[in-house]
Amino acid sequence: GSPASWYASIKNLRPNLLLNYHEFLEAFVHCFDDTDKYTTTLAKIRELKQEPGSVASYASKFVEILANLNLDKESKMDYFYDGLKDPVKDDMVFVKKPKSGLFEDYIKLIIPIDNRIYQC
After folding, report:
1. Whether residue 21 is found in the same domain as residue 57
2. 40 touches 69 (CB < 8 A)
3. How far is CA 17 from the centre of its chain?
4. Residue range of the domain that includes 76
5. Is the CB of residue 85 less than 8 Å from the CB of residue 50?
6. Which Pfam families match (predicted)?
7. DSSP for 15-71, written as a single string
8. Are residues 69 and 21 in the same domain?
9. How far is Cα 56 from Cα 47, in angstroms, rounded to an integer?
10. CA angle, corner 106, sides to 89 and 48, nearest 5?
């Protein structure tokens, strides 16, 4: 249910929780916290797409979500690639992954591709 209905039930059934912040917080987190953050976050990464914006905008959102996952470099690049627009993917055939193997360098290679496509 909603936090408001949860609070109403606490107020009526367990009013002592309202007197102890730590117990109240523990009960709230127990009720509303995501029990499988990894799976939820991974689903967000898989659902994220570049459409309709730029690679730079997509990368920013991707990195924000990625902060909650511990993925290896290759997986980061693969998931990022999956969300790119098809024209960008098509042009990436001519681009090799960065020698450094760093995800940040991978993004830096892709942004100019998207910029060229946008200019055409």
Report:
1. no
2. no
3. 34
4. 37-119
5. yes
6. Retrotrans_gag (PF03732)
7. GGGGG-HHHHHHHHHHHHS-TTHHHHHHHHHHH---TTS-HHHHHHHHHHHHTT---
8. no
9. 17
10. 60
Q: Give the contacts of 19 (CB within 8 A, at least 6 positions apart).
A: none
**This prediction's pTM:** 0.72
DSSP, collapsed to helix, strand or coil, labels residue 92 as helix
Q: Which two tokens stand for residue 100?
A: 């450094």
For residues 42 and 82, state if they share a domain: yes
Q: Which residues of the chain have pLDDT under 70?
A: 120
Which pair of structure tokens corresponds to residue 68? 């909650």
Domains identified in the chain, total number: 2
57 and 90 fall within a common domain: yes
62 and 89 co-located in one domain: yes
Instruction: Check if the beta carbon of residue 55 is closer than 8 Å to that of residue 61.
Output: no
The reported pLDDT for the residue numbered 30 is: 86
Q: Are residues 51 and 104 in the same domain?
A: yes
Residues 50 and 25 in one domain: no
Integer Cα distance of 34 and 45 in angstroms: 16
If asked whether residues 13 and 53 sit together in one domain, one would say no
